Amino acid sequence: MAKKDKEFVLREIRDKKVEFVRLWFTDVLGFLKSFTISPRELEEAFEEGMGFDGSSIEGFARIEESDMVAKPDPSTFVILPWGEGREETGAARMFCDILNPDGTPYEGDPRYALKRMLKEAADLGYTMYVGPELEYFYFKSSSGAPEILDNGGYFDLTPLDVASGLRRDTILALESMGIKVEYSHHEVAPSQHEIDLRYTDGLTMADAAMTYRLTVKEMAMKHGVYATFMPKPLFGQNGSGMHVHQSLFKGSKNAFFDSRDKYYLSKAGKSYIAGLLRHSREVCLVVAQWVNSYKRLVPGYEAPVYISWARRNRSALIRVPMYKPGKSNATRMEFRCPDPACNPYLAFTVMLAAGLKGMKEGYELPDPVEEDIFEMTAAEREERGIDSLPGSLGQAIHFTERSALVRKALGDHIFDKFIANKKLEWDQYRMQVSNYELNKYLPIL
After folding, report:
1. Nearest to 248, CA basis, from 272, 264, 267
2. Separation of alpha carbons 333 and 304, rounded Å
3. Do 170 and 225 fall into the same domain?
4. Which position among 52, 144, 194, 440 has the lowest Cβ density within 10 Å, counted as fewest Cβ atoms?
5. What is the model's pLDDT at position 63?
């Protein structure tokens, strides 16, 4: 495969007759931002970057320090499988690194936060690999009460699953952009679906996750329906998660694997898992960042609530899939509380930070819990030392705001902006009077 550098990009744009180039980046909350340039501007973009006003981007600069520079990363160049303006017009995209006017990395860029944490791992000799499972819903539109497209269940096929064609088109679009797909299927809830991406390094996967979310929405729009990554859009049904499989490699060797251990986990692997367990309440706000995220994280709907690990037990927060002989490189852990509406750059950053902290300080991994934790009484959980994740956005803010680990991982700028935004969201939510309250209390109080 040809190296994707500046010359490759310029040649592809000329040969494929690309007329528009979208420059992509994300704000602190993980919303995709973009502006479009013509191919004739690319030389300057590669050399100096393209200036823009960052004061209107959530979590970026204040008015008095608004000048920002977006510098495209040629390794992320792909031609988009949907048109720009006229249907036949070609468009391409590249992710950008956000810089200060003097050319230094901008501390408020989520992509930079992840790159910084990945470098910390690399300095220790490790490469982080990630494989997320992103779930989502198809509805008839984005307005009013959600209207489902089907009543299918887990792994159901047509005619119950009327969105098979939608998933097929989405997968073809992803594969055309070099994003490898492992599985796709109908999920447990009506009109709920999942497409799993094949594992790759952390930065490539964060870029892919952002591309995935837009692609799912673009393909849905093309079919006249609406796709949402809202964690819990339907009351009484399972919500959408983003289980994140992760491992560390040293060169071509999986650093989590040890053939002599009864769980086939190395000391590094055990300490990494222990780090995520110990700091899970601190990172929860970043991996489940919305008020609605905590409507999903409740007992009874397969979403993890209790802080424990297991191999078979899917009620645990972390699952370590069983080792298959000859598949040592597949050794990994699955963190199950993130949802697909998070900022993947920041989510991967804090997960890696927690795992590395456990490795550096030699955290001890507790015994696995293979019993169904949902069936335990509060006293039984307390006796086993099983704590719970935050039960609301407000509780999550409480844990994260006091976390030295998360502040260090994200940097002061992103940390402060993120916390301030979440406090505002929580305050706005608390002031609302819901239909539940009106229906329950108005007739009796």
Report:
1. 272
2. 14
3. yes
4. 144
5. 46
Residues 38 and 183 in one domain: no
In a domain? residue 325 = yes
Distance CA 131, CA 245 (A): 5
Is 53 annotated in the active site? yes
The answer on pLDDT for 357 being more than 50 is yes
Same domain, residue pair 374 and 410: yes
Active-site annotation holds for 175: no
Given a cut of 90, whether residue 315 has pLDDT beyond it is no
How far apart, in whole angstroms, are the C-alpha atoms of residue 3 and residue 12? Answer: 12
Question: In which domain, by residue range, is 159 found?
Answer: 115-436
Residue 65 has what pLDDT? 53
Whether 75 and 134 map to the same domain: the answer is no
384: Cβ contacts below 8 Å, ≥ 6 apart = 308, 369, 376
Respond yes or no: is residue 87 known to be catalytic.
Answer: no
Q: Is the pLDDT of residue 154 over 80?
A: no
Catalytic residue, from 27, 135, 150, 161: name it.
135
Asked if 20 and 158 sit in the same domain, the reply is no
Does a structural domain hold residue 1?
no
Which residue, among 334, 92, 95, has the nearest Cα to 206 in the 3D structure? 95
Domain boundary residue among 77, 104, 131?
104
Percent of the chain with pLDDT over 90: 68
Please, which pLDDT band fits residue 342 given cuts at 50, 70 and 90?
very high
User: pLDDT by residue (tens digit) across 271-309?
Assistant: 999 999 999 999 999 999 999 999 999 877 677 889 999
Q: What's the total number of domains in the chain?
A: 2
Does the annotation mark 194 as catalytic? yes
Catalytic status, residue 182: no
Of the residues 80, 104, 128, the one at which a domain ends: 104
Residue 4 has what pLDDT? 83
User: Does one domain contain both 88 and 131?
Assistant: no
